[in-house]
Design brief:
Elements (H helix, E strand, L loop, with lengths): L2 H37 L2 H12 L8 E2 H10 L1 H6 L9 E16 L2 E5 L9 E4 L8 H6 L10 H24 L8 E11 L11 E5 L2 E4 L2 E10 L9 H20 L8
Parallel strand pairs: 1-2, 4-8
Antiparallel strand pairs: 2-3, 2-5, 3-4, 5-8, 6-7
């Protein structure tokens, strides 16, 4: 056999081996991605998001009074302070503030953040079921492009909202909130661009024999408690101190697992 034929055979053999290896590598990568997608656990993801990531960015939240003023008077400037998914006309915000409870109803507590207090501006949602993506999207910590489909992305919000109900809303309701109580909160909200075209937040929406309804900014609480008093040990500060050991233990437990993959 001539030398050039031998070289050609060797070259073709190497080429075949490289093509085969590349094909096998792609198959392994695809299989690994499929396996990871099957084992994705939104509850674990939400738990890690809440314990290890969310509270580290709450200091970036916008002052609630300032945000409502912008939403009422300059929506363009307000939009710049929020987070937006793609080309959506709905924008998400982290906000913080304090105010006085004006009234309570089945949807939550209506709060006036003005000084002195007057009509409510905010509805802090305290129902036993929370919907929407406010906390997930306002945080800016969850990248939709990392997930293979929107179902997984949306299930994260569902699990986050369950945590809100169990660990924020229920302890707050144990304090039996009532009109006149002063509270402090950090939360998340979703606002459409046309939300204040007809009515400003805080304006009267409807008035009849059943009472007055206001146009309110709906906020999902992340932290929510009465302001600290000598008789009350359930303020935000004391709750943070109580929460730290539990969060530390959860982080340690989570690190022992195989972890999660954003797919």
């Amino acid at each position: 056999m001539k030398r050039k034929h031998i070289i050609a055979i060797i070259f073709l053999g190497l080429l075949g081996f490289l093509l085969y290896s590349s094909f096998e590598f792609r198959n392994l990568e695809q299989k690994r991605a499929e396996d990871q997608a099957k084992t994705f656990k939104p509850a674990d993801y939400a738990r890690n998001f809440w314990d290890n990531r969310l509270f580290g960015i709450l200091d970036t939240s916008v002052n609630a009074q300032e945000l409502i003023e912008l939403l009422n008077t300059n929506m363009g400037s307000a939009i710049k302070k929020g987070k937006t998914l793609g080309d959506s006309r709905v924008h998400s915000y982290l906000l913080r503030g304090e105010g006085k409870i004006v009234s309570t109803n089945r949807d939550g507590v209506e709060v006036s953040i003005k000084n002195p207090p007057s009509n409510p501006d905010i509805l802090l949602c305290t129902k036993s079921y929370i919907s929407g993506n406010a906390v997930r999207d306002a945080s800016g910590l969850v990248d939709v492009s990392k997930f293979s489909n929107t179902m997984k992305f949306n299930r994260i919000s569902s699990e986050i909202n369950k945590i809100v109900v169990q660990e924020v809303i229920k302890p707050f309701l144990d304090n039996e909130p009532s009109a006149g109580m002063t509270i402090k909160f950090t939360g998340a909200t979703e606002v459409s661009e046309d939300a204040t075209e007809e009515l400003r937040f805080g304006d009267v929406k409807e008035e009849n024999e059943n009472g007055i309804k206001f146009h309110l900014l709906k906020v999902i609480p992340i932290e929510l408690a009465p302001l600290e008093t000598p008789q009350n040990g359930n303020s935000l500060q004391s709750r943070r101190l109580l929460r730290e050991p539990a969060l530390k233990q959860r982080r340690e437990n989570f690190s022992l697992k195989h972890g999660y993959v954003e797919r």
